[in-house]
Amino acid sequence: MNRKDNRNAVLGDLYQFQYGTGNTIEDIGGDYPIYGSNGAVGFTNIYNSEDAPVIGHIGAYAGIVNWASGKHFVTYNGVICKIKDGVNPKFGYYSLLNSGLQKRLRGSTQPFVSYDLLDEVKTYLPDKKIQDNIANTLSEIDAKIELNNKINSELEQMAKTLYDYWFVQFDFPDKNCKPYKSSGGKMVWSEEFKKDIPEGWDIKFLKDVFEFEKGIEPGSLAYLDSPKNDNCIKFFRVGDIDGESSIYIDSVNKKYTKVEEKDVVVTFDGSVGKIGLGLNGAISGGLRKIYDKSKKYNNSLVYFIFRDERIIATIHKYATGSILLHASSSIDHLKIPFEKSVYLKFQEIVTPIFDQIVKNKKENQELASLHDWLLPMLMNGQVKVN
Asked: Which of 207, 208, 280, 351 is the most exposed place for a label (fewest CB within 10 A)?
């Protein structure tokens, strides 16, 4: 095989494929992550693969490719990928991502990935040095995205810890800059909240403070796979709440609920109680854009209020439906203990954190677009990396 520029290779030249072991394996909290059809699902003390991709073998996640770092265990729901000599493992991983495996599945009622399917998919297999360059370029983009996600996770946890300290434990700074409740601040029983709250506070229903603007569903016939003109914008449904959508709609002369990166979006249908940020486009009827019309309270405060576990629990409590949940009725029951000056002080502290989270999300979207644009061209030799 001419490894210098083989444009007629197949995935079987890169990997030896085999199905994982056992339909399920008990999560015993060991050292090695357990991988099923779509990512890690637990931990165990044995492993059968190391630093390699895992392909979803069967079911709804068949054909999805995840990279598993270090030693790990793959169940029968996944496909083990053993790299062959002369192939960069990360290059092989990107080859799998570029192969469109989800469009090549077998089985009508229960889709699955077969050995012969994997072995026969054509791919590009250049010289090892070129493989290394391609793998390094794409890995650097992935690493930056992962770093931004880690930073955002830490920023959110920091802000949530402060929120809980102030508004759940009620240890916000008192007039002497000491924690209110722990320093003996007076608490009074709230019949409406069924708990003690600080003296002088009241209970505020969120619908009296914030606007819950419902999205508009244009129908699947209006969906576009790509933008056809400058009026086309991305369209986000409940399943796209994390910011990834491949659907566009034409917004000209039509009234849609539009959102920008700093808008806070919450799901009230389907997977209820999930919070979206960093979306730019229009939203469906299962989503609500939540904001203060008076602009006294900005979106940083809205965002962390809806991270409050009590708010999320209330949304779930009033959700109805056996197959598809509907939780719009929960809006009438969302309430918090409230004191204006304390919330405004909290808002002042968390706004820079919120802004950095939005900035990182936007950068990740740009990096992901760059990654998706480069991947096919690098993996078929159209573009070379020096």
From this structure: 208
